[in-house]
Amino acid sequence: MPALLQKIFKTGIVTEPLGPDDDEIIQLVRQVDEKSKRLLGRALAIREVDAGSCNGCEIEITGLTSPVYDSERFGIHFVASPRHADMLLVTGPVTRNMEIPLRKTYEATPDPKLVAAVGDCAQTCGVFKGSYAVAGSVDQFVPVDVFIPGCPPEPADILRGILAALDRMPKK
Amino acid sequence: MQTLFLLMFSAYFLGALVALSGGRGNLGRGLVALAAVVGAGAGFALGASVLLSGAPFVLSIPQLLPLAGGLALRLDGLGAFFLIVIGLVGVSAAIYGFGYSAAYEDGRASLRMLGVMLNLFLLTMSLVTMADNVLTFLLMWEGMSLTSYFLVITESNEDAVRAGVWYAAMTHAGLALLLAAFVLLMNGGSGAFADLRAGAASLSVTTRNVIFLLAFLGFGSKAGIVPLHIWLPRAHPAAPSHVSALMSGVMIKMGIYGIVRVALDLLGGGPVWWGGIVLGVGAVSALLGVLYALMEHDLKRLLAYHSVENIGIILIGIGAGLIFHSYGLTTLAALGFIGGLYHTINHASFKGLLFLGAGSVLHATGTRNMEEMGGLIKKMPWTAFFFLIGSAAISALPPLNGFASEWLVFQSLLGGFNLPVPEVALIMPVAVGMLALTSGLAAACFVKAFGITFLALPRSHEAEHAHESPLSMRIGMGILALACIGLGLAPFVVVPILGGVLNGLGGLPDTRAAFTSNLSLQTPVAFGQMSSTLVMLGLLILLAVIPLVMWILRVNRKLRVSDTWGCGRVGQTSRMEYTATSFAEPLRRVFAELYRPTKEVTIDFHPDSKYFVQSIAYRSEVMPLFERLLYDPFLRLMQSAARQVRRLQTGSLHLYLVYVTVILILLLLAARWF
Amino acid sequence: MIGYLLEFSQALLALLLAPLLAGFVRWVKSRLQNRRGAPVWQPYFELAKLFGKDVVMSNNASWLFRVAPYIVFASTLAVTFLIPLIAAPLPFDNIGDLLVVVYLLLLGTFFLALAGLDPGTAFGGMGASREMTVAAIAEPTIALSIFSLALGAGSTNLGQIVIATLTNPGVALSPGHLLAFAAIFIVSLAETGRLPVDNPSTHLELTMIHEAMILEYSGRYLALIEWASWLKLTIFFSLLANLFVPWGLALTLTPAALAIAVATLILKLAILGMVVAMIETRIAKLRLFRVPELLGMSFVLALLAVTSSFLLK
């Protein structure tokens, strides 16, 4: 225990401050209404849905909860059940097998809710476009509020995208 | 009081007569039920009047059976209390039985026998509480056992008949023990209880000890103590449900009545080890009862094992009382007895309620197997609600009645630190631990029983098409549910009454005012205070205030009904729910040393490939400990002894004549010399 | 009159402190993980958000599903009226002693488990089954710890226990009390769903005990249940703090004494919170079937506590 504490104190806080979106890659599809912004602005519960991705985006998303990117400092935390969730973080082109589960997840989430599509695959099906296993991009099945392009996008960009949906994006 | 007694007697008698003529159809069943209701109600009123007036009711007809003192009845406080218990459950069960026995109109069971035996059962049980001499007591006791035997085998299927055999054998073994105990107690004199009471002090210590042990085992086998409880899980499920409620709720309490009557009243208490045995057996029964109940998925067997558990809890209270009594700490002794007796009436009400509920479920779905039920809360809302009250009560959740009596038993055990001998005093914490574990496990078991039976989706076709019980059955359950709530709301009324019951018994002081203070209960030396009335009030206020505050603060009130969240899969079937076996599985693993579960998995593979499975059958059995350790060897011994004796029966008439001649000569010689 | 005011404000204080305590434990954990973490008052924002969300209910669930959150919340809130948070003795002491407190908490667990079974999901059943197992096995430890405390104080009455320790300070260091503290500490971790028994921040359903039962809840129901679980944490920590280290409790109802009481309560809760956060950082979750071993150890500690109280009396 003492060795662990020593190591912890020696390392110190490693969280990096989140800068603004310099490359302007976040695409806000619609302006989120005032009520949702006010309600979800300080405490957001996210349910991540893998609608057929290659898991590249997932690895970046798991980086969000690491000490370096620390999504929790913005009040964002991940939950297991869509009933607890306020935002769905959808990755991957929607495969035929995941079409119904994605819709059901969306239905299971209580209002007000947001959807963020992460990665190129979620927006345009990416490299899997035209495949027999792919049913379409995410916005063909659930209404998306913000696109976060990239293959895969950086955790910092994912974070900026989520905050953009809440209108809490760090300003330049 | 004389009129009430005559009313009770004649109602039961007439009910039996009416049933003798057929007891079929709405009129027949209705008259039988009415007779039982009137009889039980009159008994209740008789008991209540004895308790309220403080004067016992006496009736003696010495000419009836002049052989051993004739018929003598005397209803004192203790008997009156048990008569009230009989009355409460009797009324509810009789009303319930009117609707329930309609299912027997098709000839599955003899309504005639059901009606006759039900009334005679209630009659003989009531007379047991009033018996004032040995003859009356044993006669009525045997009558109670016989009538209940016939009631057990009403639905003459194989299970019921086998259960009946077990029951008859064990109850008569118990009777033999009781006979021996009473003969020793009579010591050659008359059988009147007053004489027994007076003469008990002059018996030798060994005789008193032997009497106590015989009586404890005899009455205990009726009550269902471990290891003499074997008949309970067989007989109670086999009987019709209102009979199960009566047997489990009331008849086994007659064992408790007997123990208190003999040990405390007639013998006047004894050395410490008496109470120690009662306490120890009670604690073990409680724990083993609930542990075996956890593994059951037959709803009525589960409830039967819980009866064993609750008898154990009652005996813990009574044992503690006896221990304190032997050290002269009479106020604490009264506390222990009050706890035990309070739990008696509480158990009668919630166990009766639970059995009636199980009967409703059986009536609606045709099965007792919990694994085939589910979703009944939507099909049978009233039954579900009453069963929920019963489950919460038996799990000792405040503010219902189970909590009040368990609190009293806990407090009497906690008073153990007053005992002068530390070695004895150390039993008390162990008993506290066992009692706490029992009540925790009981709560777990009833989450399972209520949850699997009533909640989620129906697991079988029958459960899907279940219907609510008829009105009479709902009324029967409702009465007992009200009793559960009432007994929990007003412990400050019940405890003084129980104090009055115990006043003077075995030298106990008047504790009518000792344990209450305004609306709360308090234990000696202000050890603890509790008011479940105010707890109930507080909970109700909070339950009203919280939604009100939420409404005032304009909390979002929208609600949308949607599919169950199943991780996105397409449908939900009952195969995806938890089952009773899986619910109890963690506990099965924790207590695996006791259960020694065996597991058998049979997998049918597709003939073409072993990667495709057609069906899987899983079978798990819990080791029946007492059958294997105690009863099987005993039965084998009996059978081998019987085989040896059978050698005498050669079938040859000549040999039999020789036997007769030899015995005759021996008897003549014996008569000559003695 | 002033007694009732005290009771009401005590319950309100517990209600308001509960999210702060949960947030504090989370904050310490995140700092120990070398990250900034959410601010200490994050749970308040979460509650506000949940009360504003819609409820989505399963079509298999019954009225029990809708009533259970209120029963859980009411029973837990009822307990806060009975425990000595800032003052002792309390006017409601004759309504409930330590046994009533324990069984009221069991009432909440009972209905939460039923609510887990109601929608008919496998995870709900699993959570209910595990929760009842842990609750059942923790019961004897709690009962015996109550016994050992009551032995020392001569009463199961919470106010009496506190006053007995205050009038006889040496008893706080007696083996009975120390062992009982250890036993109740382990049971608190089990009952409130902290590591090593249950991970409060897990997303893996197969590792959940408490969380698994509430997977179907949303909106205001979820808010009530979450608040009740934080309140339960506050209750257990307050019991640990005020029964074993009662200094700071107000014995008279003067504003100064009450202010000191509130301050010491917050201090004690903060210390316990830090200890639990450090334990949660250091220890991994136990396999489910090792939990009975842990609880068995706490039972032995409690039994030793009682025995030593008896023999040293």
Description:
The complex is a heterotrimer of chains A (172), B (674) and C (313). With 172 residues, chain A is of the alpha/beta class. Helices cover 31% and strands 17% of the residues of chain A. A 6-stranded mixed sheet of chain A has the order 1-8-6-4-2-3, with helices on both faces. A two-stranded antiparallel sheet of chain A has the order 5-7. Chain A is globular. Chain B is mainly alpha-helical and 674 residues long. The two termini of chain B are 51 Å apart. Chain C is built from 11 helices and 1 strand. The longest helix of chain C is centred in the middle third of the chain and has 32 residues, at 122-153. The interface between A and B is small, with 13 and 10 residues. Strand 6 (559-562) of chain B pairs parallel with strand 1 of chain C, so a sheet runs across the interface.
Q: What is the molecular shape of chain C?
A: globular
Question: What value does the average pLDDT of chain C take?
Answer: 91
Helix content of chain B: 55-70%
How far apart, in Å, are the first and last alpha carbons of chain B?
51 Å
SS element count, helices of chain B: 27
What is the spatial order of strands in the main beta sheet of chain B? 3-4-5
**What is the SS-derived class of chain B?**
mainly alpha
The low-pLDDT segments of chain B are none
Helix content of chain C: 55-70%
Q: How many structural units, i.e. domains of chain C?
A: 1
β-strand amount of chain C: under 5%
Instruction: Give the chain pair forming the largest contact, with residue counts.
Output: B-C, 87 and 85 residues
Number of strands of chain B: 8
Report the biggest beta sheet of chain B as strand number plus sense, adding barrel if it closes. Answer: 3 strands, antiparallel
Question: Which secondary-structure class do the elements of chain C indicate?
Answer: mainly alpha
Could you spell the SSE succession of chain C in H and E letters? HHEHHHHHHHHH
Low-confidence stretches of chain C: none
Discrete helix count of chain C: 11
- Given the C-alpha coordinates, what overall shape of chain B results? globular
Oligomer: heterotrimer
Task: Output the radius of gyration of chain C.
Answer: 19 Å
